[in-house]
Design goal:
The structure holds three protein chains of three kinds. By secondary structure, chain B is mainly alpha-helical. Chain B contains 30 helices and four strands. By secondary structure, chain C is mostly helical. In chain C, 33% of the residues are buried. The chains are: A mainly alpha, B mainly alpha, C mainly alpha.
């Protein structure tokens, strides 16, 4: 019974900001994710940054879902979560594998794979 | 005649009906004549594939060609008067409209008149004899089956050429014999000279064939048909397919010129003769059959076949006059080269060119009979000569140099060859009275003086040139005979030692010379064939006396064909100036167009069956040329033989030296020039090969720099692009991500600008 | 954008923020991370302040909820810390904070189900996996011992270029959102979430009936005492929501009912005859009823319905992807290190030496 209560509270007690407020948050978070992905050299952090970009996309999706009063947006967030989970599983498995080989998490250590 | 009916033009249909009544249709089994050799060729191909090493291919080919000869002979004996059209099957039937000239119809059919009968008789007859000769000559060669496959294919193509009832089939045969000639000249494909000669023959023939092809196209465009029957009918009527009178059409005189170019290529006339001497790289039977007796006379056949167009009155006879001059000059020119050569086969080759020149001159002087008769006699004696040369070559391991052979008649087993050679030489030299070559040559020579200048300008001058050439011919012919076949016995083998030649002759050592080499006397097949041919060469005289009405059997045949030039360019000029064109002799032509007495008068005149009227005819020493020529040409021939005897036989002690060498200082560089063929090949090198070489290398450079440059440049763009982009391929993940993020930014920016602007 | 926020101010803030972020990133020598963090916080705070002021139009009720700003700033600050903290473990923990605060934003958007599943799945499962791998792949650092950090964690690559790129992207993106996609309409207020779900009640009649039963909707139903007909609960054949009014299709079109009505004419309660304030309505088989709050479809109902009814194929595919990822992770993680020939020989030698040493 928590969720409806909170939702009602947010509706009644707080005047909700507009769609743009949420989209700005999403945009900023996405950009920070991009910056993180570009600057950090630790592969795990890089994956974290991609997760952050997913998160930003999720906020935008939910905001649009609410704006259009259509639950498909939230369903998309479920799929984003699914992909994030799958990516985490594979990416981390890869990271473990690569770390075993090089004893390093530096993405540049695998630069020779440019082919 | 269904094909003609398809044209759907009233006039043409009427003409076709007339033609169909005029020319009977012949027996369909004549199809065996070309098809039997074709089948034999295919069987030889199978033998080749089956790696059969026996003489089976030779047997197949000899039998098939002999059968073709038998069929031809049978058909000839049972022939009807006039031209017979035999349609075997519809070959090409294209129609893109119903008007005249919009239907191309060419059947696989035969147009059998005297001309085709004559040609087919000696093609198949000589073909079977020479195939028999080759069965021994070529034995032991690895390409035995290949040789006979091409040989039989040649007979097929020649039959198509000669028997075909339309120009397209003639063209098929024309290219077919060219191909077989190419294949057989290049038969010893491991020898560079043979390959070069084959290519030369092929390429030079292409020039002529281009003329022929354009001529055929133009014929179709002008007359709307390529079938002789139809064509001659239209020429007779003097109207083209579009209804215009032929006198007003430029095609009327250009088509003969173009056909003439084709004939010059195939028959080795100036300036396209250069391939024929080189063609002697082929096996000798090939030289005998293809490059002496049959294929090279295809040009004569073509001109004779299309003679109605050549003599069409009312338009200038450029083609005929050119033919006369070119034939004359070719005869003289190649005779001078032949005088200075040492390779006897090559001498024979130049003599062939020279004799072909005679034939063309004869055509030019309007005596198709003379030309055809000379073709006929020449086929026999030149085949004899070549086969004798072949026997010598075969026996002396490829030795053909007359300075290294001598006195063959005294060697064991060479008697028949020597006698056959003597017969051939007498014929070629035109020895009076007993040789056929004498009569056939005379027919042409006398016509040169008979034909009035109004038709062929300066024909007497050409006659004199040809007479001198006859003397030269006698000289170089007997030069060969006196040097090689008589005199002291001496020989040197060539460089092609036949393996099988040794074992047979190890025991008798009478000519024991050096190198342990023993001449390899010809066997029964060669001797038989030579004997038959030699007798046939003599027997050919008989034909001259058979049909007195038409000046010989050949004349009778020709009289019955499209080559019969009936009219009377001068005879009728006086009587009937309105006669516009030379009538084409079709069946029953005697019944219309000529008064019987005129005809008879023309026949009394001597050799000329063309009604050479005496009023305007030329004279020789104030006499009728036909009568005088017997003595004049005999004198020239005998003088030539005598000089040859004097210089090359009398007192000759060795093979290499003769009295002719004493003359060398007085002649200056002329013999050397003649021996080097007047540097014609070198001249062609400078005039044609050099510029072509330059142009082609220029284009090669252009191709390299420009075309390849563009292509490589196009290919290089992505490469250069990739090289510049490769810097970005660092393998560092974030660098790629920068590209992705930057690209995303740019895309979004564009979207933003677009939405704001829109 | 002008209506929301002054673009010059906005871009100025972005520049300052970018500078702050780039300073906040770990660097090799001098690392003014605190300064950078303060700059960035100032910039983003200013942006949000400006955003809030833009919607304030003199009426305090129009001021956007303070919770939004609080949690938005926490989320952004935490994500900044994710990318700037040199220690991966802390990064991951800050990412959990980001997720938590963004799940609060979800809640504010009325997406309760997603908010909690985010916490459970992301913060609970995925990030724990990350932490696990980080622990596995890095040795535990000493407290504030930067020297012990791995070289690749201690400083970042090209912070200036990356930050420039990121903030250009941010500027373009926000500009596009503000002016491009919406066609110039800036005030896009969010609708009450409950309205969205009213139509959904059509899809779940049994829930509505259960709720009505649970609230004793029919409990007071009795018939006119005068008629002497015994009480029976009417069977509800179907429900239908039309224009926000719930209609019950009942199978006994009784003559008359005594009901309580709200101001909209909707029945709130069916009561016995004679009750005070009771209205009598004539018999009809369609009864307009006010939907009880508890019977309103919740966010979970909406998401579940959308997921199963509208995207069943995608749901199945997501399951397949997860299965494949599971298999892939297993395959990848169990790969052994390939030894080179030299290494094998060396190992064999040591093994042989130890064995021979043991035997002798």
């Amino acid at each position: 019974m928590m969720a409806p209560v909170l939702a009602q509270a947010s509706e009644e007690l707080l005047t909700n900001p507009t769609l743009f407020h949420y989209l700005f948050v999403s945009t900023i978070m996405f950009s920070i994710g991009v910056i993180g992905f570009l600057t950090r050299r630790n592969m795990i952090i890089m994956f974290l940054c991609t997760e952050m970009m997913f998160q930003a996309a999720g906020i935008a999706l939910v905001a649009f879902s609410r704006y259009h009063l259509n639950h498909s947006g939230e369903v998309f967030v479920i799929f984003v979560l699914t992909i994030a989970a799958a990516e985490a599983a594979l990416a981390l498995a890869l990271v473990v594998l690569l770390f075993r080989r090089r004893e390093s998490l530096d993405a540049a250590a695998w630069a020779e794979m440019k082919g | 005649m269904s094909l003609v009916g398809a044209i759907g033009n009233d006039v043409l249909t009427l003409a076709a009906e007339a033609a169909s009544t005029a020319s009977g249709s012949g027996p369909g089994w004549m199809a065996a004549v070309p098809l039997l050799p074709l089948l034999a060729s295919a069987l030889c191909g199978l033998c080749l594939a089956g790696r059969i090493r026996s003489k089976l291919p030779a047997a197949i080919v000899v039998l098939s060609i002999a059968a073709a000869f038998a069929v031809t002979l049978f058909g000839f004996l049972g022939r009807a008067d006039g031209a017979q059209v035999i349609t075997i099957f519809e070959w090409i039937g294209l129609s893109w409209g119903s008007g005249p000239g919009e239907t191309l119809s060419a059947d696989f059919g035969f147009y059998m008149d005297g001309l085709s009968w004559l040609w087919m008789l000696f093609v198949t007859g000589l073909g079977s004899l020479i195939a028999l000769y080759a069965s021994e000559y070529m034995s032991g060669d690895k390409g035995y089956a290949r040789f006979f496959a091409a040989f039989a294919l040649f007979v097929f193509a020649m039959a198509c050429l000669v028997m075909g009832d339309n120009l397209v089939l003639l063209y098929l045969g024309w290219e077919g014999v060219g191909l077989c000639s190419y294949l057989l000249i290049g038969y010893f494909y491991k020898r560079p000279a043979a390959v070069a000669a084959a290519k030369k023959a092929f390429i030079v023939n292409r020039i002529g064939d281009l003329g022929l092809a354009i001529g055929v196209f133009l014929t179709f465009v002008t007359f709307g048909t390529v079938e002789y029957d139809e064509l001659f009918r239209m020429i007779d009527e003097g109207v083209a397919a579009n209804g215009q009178p032929l006198e007003e059409l430029w095609q009327t005189w250009t088509i003969p010129l173009l056909l003439m170019v084709g004939a010059f290529g195939k028959s080795a006339q100036l300036p396209l003769y250069v391939w024929l001497p080189d063609a002697m790289e082929g096996p000798t039977p090939v030289s005998a059959l293809i490059h002496a007796a049959t294929m090279v006379t295809a040009g004569v056949y073509l001109v004779a076949r299309m003679f109605p167009l050549f003599v069409y009155d009312g338009v200038p006879h450029y083609a005929l006059n050119t033919i006369a001059w070119v034939g004359t000059l070719t005869a003289l020119f190649s005779a001078t080269i032949g005088m200075a050569q040492f390779d006897i086969k090559r001498i024979m080759a130049y003599s062939t060119v020279s004799q072909l020149g005679y034939m063309f001159a004869g055509l030019g002087f309007l005596t198709t009979t003379g030309a055809a008769f000379h073709v006929f006699t020449h086929a026999f004696f030149k085949a004899t000569l070549f086969l004798c040369c072949g026997a010598v070559m075969h026996g002396f391991a490829g030795q053909l140099d007359l300075r290294r052979l001598s006195g063959l008649i005294h060697m064991k087993g060479w008697l028949i060859v020597s006698l056959a050679m003597l017969v051939g030489c007498l014929n070629l030299a035109g020895f009076p009275l007993i040789t056929a070559g004498y009569f056939s040559k005379d027919m042409i020579l006398s016509q040169a003086f008979t034909t009035p200048d109004s038709i062929v300008p300066y024909s007497s001058l050409m006659g004199w040139i040809l007479l001198i050439t006859a003397g030269l011919t006698a000289y170089y012919t007997f030069r060969v005979f006196f040097r090689v076949f008589v005199g002291p016995v001496e020989y040197e083998p060539g460089d092609e030692v036949h393996d099988h030649g040794h074992d047979d002759h190890d025991t008798h050592d009478e000519h024991g010379h050096d190198h342990g080499f023993h001449p390899h006397a010809p066997g029964w097949a060669i001797n038989t064939v030579l004997a038959v041919l030699a007798i046939a060469s003599f027997a050919a005289i008989g034909t001259y006396f058979v049909d007195k009405d038409h000046h010989g059997w050949v004349g009778g045949l020709l009289h019955d064909s499209s080559a019969a030039y009936h009219a009377p360019a001068h005879e009728h000029h006086a009587a009937a100036p309105e006669l516009k064109h030379g009538g084409v002799m079709l069946t029953a032509a005697d019944d219309h167009g000529h008064a019987a007495d005129e005809h008879a008068a023309s026949h009394e005149a001597g050799h000329d069956d063309h009604g050479g009227a005496h009023a305007e005819a030329g004279t020789l020493f104030g006499q009728d040329p036909h009568a005088v020529m017997y003595y004049v040409s005999a004198a020239f021939g005998i003088v030539g033989i005598f000089i040859a005897w004097l210089l090359h036989y009398a007192g000759r002690k060795t093979a290499a030296k003769s009295k002719a060498d004493l003359l060398l200082p007085f002649l200056g560089p002329i013999p050397t020039w003649a021996q080097n063929k007047w540097y014609v090949d070198e001249l062609y090198d400078i005039l044609f090969r050099g510029p072509l070489w330059l142009i082609s290398h220029l284009f090669h450079i252009i191709d390299r720099l420009l075309v390849d440059g563009i292509v490589d440049g196009v290919g290089g763009i992505p490469r250069a692009l990739a090289r510049s982009l490769r810097v970005g391929q660092s393998g560092i993940l974030q660098n790629y991500a920068v590209g992705m993020a930057g690209g995303l930014g740019v895309l979004l920016l564009i979207a933003w600008i677009l939405t704001v602007a829109g | 954008m002008e209506a929301l926020i002054n673009p010059i101010l906005f871009y100025l803030c972005l520049v300052i923020g970018g500078l702050g972020v780039s300073l906040a990133l770990p660097r090799r020598h001098v690392s003014p991370q605190v300064l950078g963090a303060m700059l960035a916080a100032t910039a983003f705070g200013a942006i949000f302040l400006l955003l809030g002021l833009s919607t304030y139009q003199g009426n305090p009720a129009d001021l956007p909820g303070i919770y939004f700003y609080v949690f938005a700033l926490i989320a952004i600050g935490a994500s900044l810390r994710v990318i700037s903290h040199p220690r991966p473990v802390y990064s991951a923990l800050y990412f959990i904070l980001t997720i938590l605060s963004s799940s609060v934003l979800y809640l504010m958007l009325g997406a309760e189900f997603m908010a909690f599943s985010l916490i459970i799945i992301y913060a609970g499962a995925i990030l724990i996996t990350y932490l696990f791998v980080i622990m596995l792949a890095t040795q535990a650092p000493q407290e504030s011992d930067v020297g012990a950090l791995s070289e690749y964690d201690a400083f970042s690559r090209e912070p200036m270029i990356a930050t420039c790129l990121g903030f250009v992207l941010l500027a373009v993106l926000s500009g596009l959102i503000a002016t491009g996609l919406t066609g110039g309409r800036h005030h896009l207020p969010l609708q009450p979430a409950a309205e969205a779900r009213l139509d959904l009640t059509n899809e779940m009649p049994r829930k509505v009936i259960r709720e009505l039963d649970g609230r004793g909707f029919f409990s007071k139903v009795s018939y006119d005492s005068g008629s002497g007909v015994p009480f029976t609960r009417p069977e509800i054949a179907d429900i239908e929501v039309t224009d926000g009014v719930l209609f019950l299709d009942v199978d006994d079109p009784a003559a008359a009912r005594h009901v309580m009505l709200d101001e909209g004419g909707r029945i709130t309660e069916i009561i016995g005859a004679g009750a005070p304030g009771a209205n009598t309505v004539s018999g009809d088989d369609r009864i307009p009823v006010r939907i009880p709050a508890s019977a309103m479809p919740s966010n979970i109902d909406g998401v579940g319905y959308a997921l199963v009814a509208e995207h069943p194929m995608a749901l199945e595919l997501a399951g397949v992807i997860l299965l494949m990822a599971l298999l892939g992770a297993v395959v990848l993680a169990r790969k052994q290190i390939e030894l080179t020939e030299d290494e094998k020989a060396a190992r064999a030698r040591t093994l042989g030496a130890s064995m021979s040493g043991g035997s002798s």
